[in-house]
Design a protein that fits this description.
alpha/beta; 17% strand
Length: 394
C-alpha cells in the first residue's frame, strides 16, 4: 500500500491538510477543510470544497492517483504546492502515527528511519491541523520520529490537542527516553494528565557499553535508565522495548532480569523482531541472525518477565519461527501498509493469527518459514480469541 503519490495536473498556492469526503452535500462549514472525491465529473464543480478530485480522467478536475484510490471518507491527506500527496491518517486503520521530527540525538545501528538534521518544524503545524479533522472513534494514535522530545514544547501542545479533540483515543509515543533523565520534563508530561498515554522506550542491554554502542550515543544507557525511573516516579505509563538482532540477542535473559528487578512498575515489555530498513539494511551483515537461532534466549527472557508479573509481548515475528511455548505472547503488530505474507503462508492454517513479515523481509529472511497445520490452528485457537473481524465503516 502506497502512502505517497502525486497529482501531476495540480498546483496550489500553499500546502493543505484536508479530510477526504465522498459526500457532495456536506454542510458548507466543513468544505474549506475537505477534499471531495467523486467517481466522475461531467461539468463545473462546487468551489466550496478546498479540492475536488475524480477517480476517472476528465477535463474539469484533477484525477485521484490510482495508487491511493483506496482513500475513503474520513481519511486525511497533505497536498503540497506541486501536487505531491501524503496520506497522513486512515480512519479505519489501527496503525496511524504522527511523525513529529526526523531529527534524533541517537543513531541506532538498526534504525529503520535514519535521522536527518533538517528543519521540519512544519510537521507539528500539520498535525495540529490534522488532529481536529480525525474521527473521535480513532482507537489509537502514535507519536514518532526521530526523537519527539527534541521538539518538547511542541510535543506538549500536540498531546493537549489530542486530549481535547480525541478524548477516547489512546496515545502511544516512541522515545529514547533520554530527555526524561531530567525530572522536570517527566513531570511536565505527567502534568498533562492524558487519560491513556504510554511512552515506549527502547533499552537494548543490561550493560551500559552494549546499549550505548547500539544507539551510538555516549552515556545514553544512564540517561535512558534514569528517564524510565523518573517517568515511573511521576506515574507515567511506560513500555520498555528491545529489538532482537545479533548484537543484542545473547543477553536477552539478563536484560529481562534487569528490567524485572529495576523497573517492576513498567506497564509493558515489547520484544521485537528486526525490520530490515534504513541502517538495519546497511548494517545487515553485523545484525542479521535467523530468529530460529535465538529462541532459547527469547523464551528465557519472556518467562523471566512473565514470572515477575510484567506484561510481555513479542512483536514482528511469525508463529512458524517461534517456539510453541511463546505463541501466546505473540502479537499482530506490523503496520498494515508494510505487512506481507510469503507464498508458504497462503497454505498456513494459522495465518489469521500470525504477525506475518515486514515488506523488507524480502531482502533477507529465515529459511525455516513453513506452513503450519490444523493441529497448530487448534492450539492457537485455544490460547487466542478469534481474530477481530473488520469493523463496518460508520
Amino acid at each position: 500500500m502506497k502512502l505517497h503519490s502525486k497529482i501531476t495536473s495540480l498546483s496550489l498556492r500553499e500546502p493543505k491538510v484536508l479530510r477526504i469526503t465522498e459526500n457532495p452535500t456536506r454542510p458548507s462549514h466543513y468544505r474549506a477543510s475537505e477534499a471531495l472525491v467523486v467517481e466522475t465529473v461531467s461539468g463545473p464543480v462546487d468551489k466550496d470544497f478546498a479540492l475536488t478530485l475524480s477517480k476517472t480522467d476528465n477535463l474539469f478536475v484533477p484525477q485521484l492517483p490510482p495508487e491511493i484510490s483506496y482513500l475513503q471518507s474520513g481519511d486525511i491527506i497533505r497536498v503540497s504546492t506541486n501536487g505531491e500527496v501524503s496520506v497522513l491518517y486512515r480512519k479505519n486503520s489501527r496503525f496511524n502515527a504522527m511523525l513529529m521530527t526526523e531529527r534524533c540525538n541517537s543513531k541506532c545501528v538498526m534504525c529503520s528511519h535514519p535521522p536527518r538534521d533538517i528543519n521540519d518544524d512544519f510537521l507539528i503545524e500539520e498535525w495540529l491541523t490534522a488532529v481536529p479533522l480525525m474521527s473521535p472513534d480513532t482507537p489509537e494514535l502514535g507519536i514518532t520520529g526521530g526523537e519527539p522530545t527534541l521538539r518538547f514544547f511542541h510535543l506538549l501542545r500536540l498531546i493537549e490537542v489530542v486530549k481535547e479533540c480525541l478524548p477516547s483515543t489512546a496515545l502511544h509515543m516512541l522515545s529514547n527516553g533520554r530527555l526524561f533523565s531530567y525530572l522536570k520534563y517527566a513531570q511536565r508530561i505527567a502534568d498533562l494528565a492524558h487519560p491513556d498515554f504510554m511512552i515506549g522506550i527502547p533499552l537494548y542491554s543490561d550493560l551500559p557499553d552494549a546499549h550505548d554502542y547500539v544507539v551510538q550515543a555516549k552515556d545514553a544507557f544512564r540517561q535512558t535508565v534514569l528517564g524510565i525511573l523518573n517517568l515511573g516516579r511521576v506515574k507515567q505509563k511506560i513500555e520498555v522495548r528491545f529489538v532482537i538482532h545479533r548484537l543484542t540477542y545473547e543477553r536477552l535473559p539478563q536484560f529481562a532480569r534487569f528490567v524485572a528487578r529495576n523497573f517492576p512498575f513498567v506497564d509493558h515489555v515489547a520484544l521485537m523482531g528486526l525490520e530490515i530498513m534504513g541502517y538495519a539494511r546497511s548494517n545487515l551483515d553485523a545484525l542479521w541472525i535467523d530468529p530460529i537461532n535465538y529462541q532459547k534466549q527469547l523464551e528465557a527472557a519472556v518467562l523471566e518477565l512473565d514470572w515477575a508479573g510484567l506484561p510481555v509481548s513479542i512483536y514482528n515475528l511469525p508463529l512458524c519461527l517461534l517456539s510453541k511455548s511463546l505463541w501466546k505472547y505473540s502479537r499482530q503488530s506490523i503496520s498494515d501498509w508494510k505487512n506481507i505474507y510469503f507464498d508458504e503462508c497462503q497454505r498456513c492454517a494459522v495465518k489469521p493469527f500470525c504477525a506475518g513479515f515486514f515488506t523488507s523481509a524480502k531482502v533477507k529472511c529465515s529459511e525455516r518459514i513453513r506452513p503450519l497445520d490444523m493441529s497448530d490452528r487448534n492450539y492457537v485457537s485455544s490460547i487466542f480469541a478469534p481474530p477481530a473481524k473488520s469493523q463496518p465503516k460508520p
